[in-house]
Amino acid sequence: MNQKNATSSIENIYSLDGRVPLGKAIPFGLQHVLAMFVANLAPIIIIAGVAGLDVGQRSMLIQNAMFVAGIGTMVQLYPVWKIGSRLPMVMGVSFTFVSILCYVAATFGYGVAVGAIIIGGLVEGFLGLFAKYWRKVISPIVAACVVTAIGFSLFEVGANSFGGGVGSPTFGSGPNILVASVALIGSLVFNIFAKGFYKQLSVLFGLVIGYVLAAFLGMVDFSAILTSKFISLPKILPFMPEFNLSAILSVVVIFLVSATETIGDTTAMVAMGLDREPTDKEISGSLACDGFCSSVSGLFGCAPITSFSQNVGLVAFTKVVNRYTLATGAACMILAGLFPPIGAIFASLPDAVLGGCTIMLFGQIVSSGIRMISNCGFSQRNSIIVALSLSIGLGFTRVPAIFSVLPTMVAEVLANNCVAVVFVVSLILNIVLPKSMEIKD
What we know:
The protein is mainly α. About 70% of the residues lie in helices and about 0% in strands.
């Protein structure tokens, strides 16, 4: 370690290792937390809403989500054995699993969703330990198709939230549409006029003004906030896991999809923040952290956690890569997970407010996927992979009866999971198509 890293210095924020004065490290760590705070909680709120959980249960899960995101980030920064990459990556609850977990929780119950998360996380964790033997099979064009499909799969979720939530007796009512529209417009206006990293707070701004309007219209239930304890330890196993084979297979497929995103995030972060390629050890540790920490998240009743692209972008923008600095942000998340009123406030968000803010996020996921496809290039081979995987994945799942010829278990996995279909088709095509398909003169 050189002399600069050996002493506490603000200059160390641009170095992976080294100490930064605590008072100066905390603002940079909080910046990373604020960039992902809303996106970390939104999947839990959406899934819990579809599962029919009450406000108290949602509040408890949000508290747990903040806690496990902080723990996962700490493990990523400071590895435990081979679990963790030792890179400045922030972990949070993944949007990738929203669509499939909404289906599993609504169809089989929340306990089955928890069981599938625990098993799926173990599968990804063990695969991560051996990533150097298989990761090249998942090429950039496969990852690009998957990310695009994830965005499209979330549009229905966003639209349902915008209208007031699935099964709501006031779905599509004037107040719901008004609140959702104000939240959306507020996010958009803030994003247009805010400068620098403050643009990352546009969703939080939309949530605040949407929440205030909803409260004024009498749409907010404050009971959980008023009755929750000021401080409380996160609850382990708040829902006993149940194990359903078709649900597990469905979720495992999405864990493989999530692994492709994590490989992409790790590669992008190292390239933009450290100006080099990631090592096999870093990729393996990153994936192992994704998987095993997701299983821990399941034990706390939460959805899987994964690396956050928002924070990869923040590293690229600021070049702040210091692990100690990001650890202060992870510590803030852990502390927030000990205070139930914080979770209760977010749990009381009406679905319409959340829908107004997240529908733009879902669109950005599609935009990111399209950009990834563009970066891969529009060769004949890539065009065939994109066209076939998206048309089969998005098209066939709109008419699920087409899968009735398959065994029941396989049909259940594929019929309601366009992301899984896109992943399987793009992966097969990537393996079987010739590497060069261009027309030669």
